Amino acid sequence: MSTHPQHAVTADPDVERFAAIDDLVWFDDMGWEEVVSHARAVPHRWAVTAAGGDDGSPYRGIAGAFEMELTVPGAPGAEPTQLPVSGLTWVGVHPDHRRTGVLTTLMDAHLSWCREQGLALAALHASDVTIYGRFGYAVASTAGEISLGHGATFDAPGVSTEGITTSMHDLSDEHVLARVHAAHRALAAGRVGSVTRTLELATRVYTDPASRLRGTERRRVVIAARDGRDVGYAILRRRPKWEDGRSAATLDCDEWAWADSAAQLALARRLTSVDLVTRTSVRVTADDALLWWCGGPRTVVHKTGDELWLRVLDLPAALPARGWSADCDVVLEVRDGLFEDQAGRWRVTARDGRAEVTRTDDPADLGLDVGVLGATYLGGRRLAALARQGLVEVHDPAALRALDTALATPTLPVPPVSF
């Protein structure tokens, strides 16, 4: 990759000028001091200036990154694994410098920095799904939002919530937030697709100044506990509304996690029984038990969207770092338009849940872009389905079946926290 000749990058930008571009690009209703405070908390920041030097004019673009951990599939019978990732965020291009190579310059800086740090993966949430594919990212997980009516019933035979208690708390209480953060980290370790964040980031994400409430209450949390241990939590906000003298309030749960089916069921029952709330929205995967406890997709309002995007930065390190569901021996012809050292032929040999990746001159069984490896990394998308999309050149159908099976996971990856 090479930086556009019109632009230069600074890795130590002025915080207020950095924040000013975010404020301009995203036109949120946060107060200025809050924008600056949030910008200051981003640990890694980049800004684009003119190639001839920084003359003090507004930055042409900005990007930031958080240090996080991603939970990836383990080998059969083993626990999932957590890997360090860089979570790209705060990406914005000044309106006066659109389509001049600013974004390419920012992505060059960020991805090159990730590789210098020895990271095998980078992750992001995409505000625009048309942008990041050209930089080697791909959608690795999806989730749906379902809306449930008050008092929804759940047909969950064999799942007992006996011994589980639920309690509601104000998330602005620092002791409650610390408790939820501890549960977040503990539960994320066992949930493929989860991304863990720092307590500082959690505090900023869930701080609710008056300027951001937008007709909702401040955030609260329902915590599920069993035998003195927290086994689940659900972060929520209620939006008050009255129609003809009756409450039509709604409840949005934008983050929840649980240790087992019983904890999830206990949380679901609590969320759908809150007084004055007529509808409750939660996020689920396509294979989520809740979707079927409430009668299946036809019984709920359901919409699906992309969640985590992944970029493989160190192919021979990334593929062995996750578990493999079956044995395979496949030669891949990989295309990577940004990093030449990742392109070419690689032999992927998986045995007993672990894989080795080595260079080879043998003929390729399959050809694909590096983005396909990111798409299938968590088990959220099947290689065979990507082949049907035309994203995999299949020279040996048996190799496609073998690699598709080896990459598959027992469950779909869960939606990660926002960052």
From TrEMBL:
Stretches assigned to the Enhanced intracellular survival protein domain: 315-411
Organism superkingdom: Bacteria
Domain Eis-like acetyltransferase: from-to ranges: 212-301
GO terms for MF: aminoglycoside N-acetyltransferase activity
Gene3D superfamilies referenced in this protein's UniProt entry, alphabetically: 3.40.630.30, SCP2 sterol-binding domain
Entries under InterPro entries matching the protein: Acetyltransf_17 (IPR041380), Acetyltransferase_Eis (IPR051554), Acyl_CoA_acyltransferase (IPR016181), Eis_dom (IPR025559), SCP2_sterol-bd_dom_sf (IPR036527)
GO biological process: aminoglycoside antibiotic catabolic process
The name this protein goes by in its record: GNAT family N-acetyltransferase
